[in-house]
Design a protein that fits this description.
The complex is a heterodimer of chains A (231) and B (450). Chain A has 231 residues and is an alpha/beta fold. Chain A is 40% helix and 26% strand. The termini of chain A are far apart. Chain B is of the alpha+beta class. A 5-stranded antiparallel sheet of chain B has the order 2-1-5-4-3. A 5-stranded mixed sheet of chain B has the order 7-9-10-12-11. Chain B has a two-stranded antiparallel ribbon with strand order 6-8. Classes of the chains: A alpha/beta (231), B alpha+beta (450).
């Protein structure tokens, strides 16, 4: 039996966007069996409509839809500063589409075919991360991060960050003046620091320094990274 | 190499050269004949004049020894011409020019023209005997004189002809070069193209003879492009249409396993799920292979792809799978970029990862690393500490449908051949070596500088 899906103790409301009847049916059933309230739509237009009317805690988004790409739903969502977490369901051969999805603000992706428990774990991780997000904008020197809009600006100019870079920065900005170690950052980026042992965090830090300036993030050798407070 | 331009130039110049040689030789021959004729006429006239000018009394007396001398201002080369007057009955010399040799210029004393050698000089001699047959006049020109004159003539002619020939050759080369420049440029433009640049060739400025060719090539390109587009659409649809129902099958099998009462039915449902997974992977690889065979992807211009981001992205796909098998997946990525196609590189890395996860036993280690190489370029390495491949078999792992002896079921033998193929497309090399801690397999892809 899968662990129940919930949101801060309440029923988790999930929008499932999947055009394939068989797969959609299986996902719908498994989500509802786990205690979530899943609403299933099969096209871009239906998804847009559903997102206007209901407050969802998460979106499961297939990319190949009959009336367009799931990316359109994602872009529509983010253009309205809606930070609802989005988990993309993708086919492995559409790597470029997946990259586009992450760049457009998707929180994670899962490759078909997947195991249901993995899907649920990923879903839980993105929901947990979003519920932790503080609402007011975080500032340090010329950098401002608005969690509600998922938007980062430098000197008032918007900087485009991938989802992973954004989450790394968010984790550091939430703890300005404190050192954040690698495990904490991995948890922030991936939702957990499971089987994967990696230095990808160093790569995201490198990218952030490239985009936001060298002086923002300090390396604390052997410990992790830190954004110094302004004093 | 058969080259129309070179062939044309060489043929033209050779023809020209032959024509020149023929004209020159003919002209020289004619000049020589004319010169000889003139000279012979001179000899004839001179000898007759001499004969008729001489008094008959010359026969009776011994020739007077005293002669007139030339005024000192006159430059006269007596070697050029000689004459002798002989009394025929006794073959006795009566009169001769100053530098004339002692022996007769015409030893046979026959009338008419003859060539002879007397006093170490070659002569052209004309002999005439008087009507009574008593006296013969022999008048001669030195042959070497004539030859030197002819040679000087020939040299002058040759110089003029050579200069003309060189001028003409240069003009020919320039004219042909200009005529072919557009064709050459078009050829160079075609050679510079990428293997799947299917844009039409420009017709503007092309000579009329080439236009029909270019038009048919363009039509052919258009048809190839259409065929490739159709193939790509088909393959993409096929991949997508297969993967989704297999995902549905897998999900339903899991639902059945969860709600099934007995252990046997749970196991059966789990097997069903594994079958779906394996079918998906094989379908995926076959379609990847077909796509790479069609080289559809390289029709797009290569772009800069960050290998570090790609590794971080794709390692996620295998993370859960490796975690379930108890394998440890470690990443060591340093920022580096290569020029290539994102989807093709994704297929390459995906197959390396798939291979490692499939052939490394539980609790094994898989290390993925990438980074820049000193001196330009980048490397990508996937190493494990699994059973490894015997050195003798290492070359064969890139053959299509090759599967290592004793390999666990589930592989299709396509993965690594696909890796090698994509690496080739990117100008990269793949090497097989030992993996981690002297065990297992390590596959390293070395990319050229971006």
């Amino acid at each position: 039996m899968l662990a129940p899906l919930c949101f801060s103790g309440a029923v988790l409301r999930v929008l499932l966007v999947e055009d394939d009847a068989m797969l959609g049916d299986a996902l719908h059933t498994s989500l509802n069996q786990s205690g979530a309230d899943a609403h299933w739509v099969r096209s871009v237009s239906e998804a847009r409509l559903a997102l206007v009317e209901h407050g969802f805690h998460a979106v499961l988004l297939d990319l190949g839809l009959p009336d367009g790409s799931g990316l359109a739903v994602l872009k529509h969502l983010r253009s309205r500063y809606d930070a609802t977490p989005v988990l993309i369901i993708t086919a492995r051969d559409r790597l470029s589409e997946r990259v586009q999805g992450l760049d457009a603000g998707a929180d994670d992706y899962i490759v078909k075919p997947f195991q249901l428990d993995e899907l649920h774990a990923r879903l839980r991780a993105v929901v947990r991360r979003s519920s932790n997000a503080v609402v007011s904008a975080l500032r340090c020197r010329d950098i401002a991060l608005d969690p509600a809009r998922r938007c980062v600006t430098r000197d008032g100019v918007e900087v485009s960050l991938s989802a992973h870079e954004y989450r790394t920065l968010l984790a550091l900005m939430e703890r300005i003046g404190h050192t954040v170690n690698r495990e904490q950052l991995e948890t922030a980026v991936y939702g957990h620091s499971a089987a994967l042992e990696s230095n990808t965090v160093a790569v995201y830090i490198h990218q952030l320094r490239r985009k936001l300036g060298d002086k923002l993030i300090t390396t604390v050798h052997g410990m992790g990274y830190r954004i110094e407070s302004e004093q | 190499m058969k080259n129309l331009q070179r062939q044309l130039t060489v043929t033209l110049l050779l023809t020209l050269l032959l024509a020149w040689i023929f004209v020159f030789a003919f002209q020289q021959f004619e000049t020589r004949r004319a010169q000889t004729g003139l000279q012979d006429q001179g000899l004839y006239d001179g000898a007759n004049q001499l004969l008729t000018a001489m008094p008959v009394s010359l026969l009776g007396n011994v020739a007077p020894a005293e002669r007139f001398a030339l005024p000192p201002t006159v430059q006269f080369n007596g070697d050029r011409a000689s004459f002798q007057v002989w009394s025929l009955p006794g073959r006795r010399p009566l009169l001769q020019s100053r530098q004339s040799p002692a022996q007769p210029l015409n030893p046979s004393f026959q009338d008419g023209y003859t060539d002879s050698a007397a006093g170490g000089v070659n002569w052209r001699v004309y002999s005439v005997t008087d009507a009574s047959g008593k006296v013969q006049v022999q008048l001669a020109y030195s042959q070497s004189e004539l030859r030197a004159k002819m040679l000087a003539n020939a040299t002058r002619g040759l110089v003029i002809v050579s200069i003309l020939f060189l001028l003409l050759a240069a003009v020919t080369c320039v004219v042909i070069g200009r005529a072919f420049r557009k064709v050459d440029r078009a050829g160079a433009a075609i050679e510079r193209r990428g293997p799947f640049d299917l844009a039409a060739l420009p017709l503007a400025g092309m000579p009329g003879e080439l236009r029909p060719f270019i038009r048919s090539i363009n039509q052919l390109l258009l048809r190839v492009k259409g065929a490739l587009d159709r193939e790509r659409r088909f393959l993409e649809n096929a991949a997508h249409e297969l993967r989704t129902p297999l995902a549905a099958l897998s999900a339903h099998a899991e639902l059945v396993a969860r709600s099934a009462g007995s252990a046997e039915s749970t196991q059966a449902a789990e097997k069903l799920r594994l079958v779906a997974q394996r079918t998906t992977r094989i379908a995926e690889q076959l379609l990847d292979q077909a796509r790479m065979d069609a080289l559809v992807d390289s029709a797009q211009a290569p772009e800069k792809v960050g290998l570090d981001g790609l590794v971080a992205l794709l390692a996620r796909d295998w993370e859960a799978c490796a975690g379930r098998a108890g394998q440890r997946l470690t990443l060591d990525v340093r920022p580096c970029a290569v020029m290539g196609n994102l989807d093709a590189l994704g297929v390459l890395l995906g197959n390396l990862l798939d291979n490692a996860v499939r052939y490394t036993p539980g609790r094994g280690r898989i290390a993925v690393s990438c980074g820049p190489v000193p001196g330009g370029g980048a490397f990508l390495r996937v190493a494990d500490d699994g059973p490894g491949i015997a050195p003798a078999e290492r070359r064969r792992v890139f053959d299509r449908f090759y599967r290592a002896a004793g390999a666990p079921a589930g592989g299709s033998g396509i993965g690594l051949s696909l890796v090698a193929q994509i690496a080739r497309q990117h100008g990269a090399s793949v090497t097989v070596s030992e993996g981690l801690d002297g065990a297992g397999v390590g596959l390293t892809v070395a990319f050229p500088a971006a």
